[in-house]
Amino acid sequence: MHKGSATHRGKAVVTVIMSDQRILVILRGDKVPAAGYWTPPAGKIEPGEDQPAAVIRETREEVGLTVQPIRCVWQCPAHGANYDLYWWLANPIAGNLKVADDEVAAARWIYPNEFANLERTFPEARDFFADILPALPEWQGRVEGRDNES
């Protein structure tokens, strides 16, 4: 058993919520690790919980939305923490955007190419929005044929 050993890595989900051609990002609040960083909603996977359930729970807790998890599209180590991050695409299906004041300082819908311009972001997240997301078929289907729209 590795539980409790120095080699045990925690697991967390990152939820990339897609609405039209935008994604939801949050500014992490003062009472959580990595406060002041912009990131998609994210959180630890609870004991006995699978990844899709964690995606749904964390999103509802942090931003008040119910999402439909689509699939896990990337995995990376957390920046400066002993966690593996599992990046999930999700669609919002119900609820109104309402941030959990104890965990989230702000939330906004942005275009993925705007992520690199936000202050205080993690390099892994910048890599995801610059390189991973644009190559995914789920994202390409959202932007095809819309390049000429304003």
TrEMBL record:
Coiled coil: none annotated. It comes from the Bacteria. GO terms for molecular function: hydrolase activity. Residues 8-132 form the Nudix hydrolase domain. Pfam families: NUDIX. The keyword S-adenosyl-L-methionine does not apply. Its cofactor is Mg(2+). Keywords: Hydrolase. The keyword Membrane does not apply. Its EC number is 3.6.1.65. PROSITE patterns: NUDIX, NUDIX_BOX. InterPro entries: Nudix_hydrolase, NUDIX_hydrolase-like_dom_sf, NUDIX_hydrolase_CS, NUDIX_hydrolase_dom. It is an enzyme of class 3 (hydrolase). PANTHER family: GDP-MANNOSE MANNOSYL HYDROLASE, MUTT_NUDIX FAMILY PROTEIN. Belongs to the Nudix hydrolase family. This is CTP pyrophosphohydrolase. It comes from Microbulbifer aggregans.
